[in-house]
Amino acid sequence: MKIALISDLHANREAFTAVLEHAQGQGVGDYALLGDFVGYGGDPAWVVDRVRALVDAGAIAVMGNHDQAAIKGAAPTMHEEAREAVAWTHAQLSAEQRDWLAQLPMSVIRDDRLYVHANAYAPSGWEYIQGRMEAMRSLQATECRYTFCGHMHEPMLYHLSGTGKAGEFTPAPGTPIPLLPNRQWLVVPGSCGQPRDGNPAACYAIFDSVSSELSFQRVPYDIEAAAQRIRAAGLPERLAQRLSQGQ
């Protein structure tokens, strides 16, 4: 089965809609939603409801740090723009939506696959997979062959051999990658709602659980409409501008 790996939606309705339509066209049969459904963007309630509908239909969803912040308040480490967005987002969500976010698990294991927002070794600590060292630590913390995580807004692929040799790979969109069975793999699909690799197109990835092939995808969407939602909400202008810059 083809599984769409979608992370860091960040209340971007336009990007999420475009990714879901693209995934359907690719024959995706299941979805794994890797956290940060809210924060930064201008349509948190709609995005939360759409994620809830997918979960009701069988999708996996895990909690992200911005989801937690929308419930409990911004973490001290969050920068001012994020803190403003967190406070605004909290007010936009109903008590029922906040309760639903609060019930999300930190991680989910299904078959030989681990789904988590930040990392496998301390999911609730929200540490980033910034390179090979953190990727190795994450892979060594689980017996699962595949780890799928978000948090980093740039697509990346890491692997660990049985002898402890690690590698990393910056993927090209649309190119199938065979995930060899003699390695562990850590997949960062990139951000759907706020890419930061210089390419403003929405990011996600597709994993084929039968062939063990992975492909990273880029999907254009109506960036100006998403930016206008941010401006209409009175959120910091920088949050609107960065969408077109992929930063």
From TrEMBL:
InterPro entries: Ap4A_hydrolase, Calcineurin-like_PHP_lpxH, Metallo-depent_PP-like, Pesterase_MJ0912. It comes from the Bacteria. CDD domains: MPP_superfamily (cd00838). Residues 1-208 form the Calcineurin-like phosphoesterase domain. It holds the Pfam family Metallophos_2. Belongs to the metallophosphoesterase superfamily. YfcE family. This is Metallophosphoesterase family protein. It comes from Roseateles koreensis.
